[in-house]
Request: fold
Amino acid sequence: MRAQDHLLRRMMQPSLPLLIWGVHFFFCYIVAAEQGRFGKISLLWAVGIASLLALALLTVLCWRTLRRLHAGRAISMLDWASAACAALGWMGVALTCLPMMLLLR
Reply:
């Protein structure tokens, strides 16, 4: 494995939760813009399923990071950044989907 591949994998660890949050945010606002074309119930289901999927992915990422923090080895700054970004992404997805659910209701 080349050094660049290892670096890319290690840098994706803290930034993947923020990427998931960003994709979810973009999806929710595209759905809100298209609410006139499709039925509100189908868009509500789409936002709900996308939010649950994003929250599940972020929960898995946070659990993996916390497991790595409690593994008994030396804790790096990258591990702390991964845990903080996973928690921030989880809160961001939750706070993005709540107004969308109220808007589409």
Summary: The mean pLDDT is 84. The CA atoms of residues 17 and 89 lie 5 Å apart.
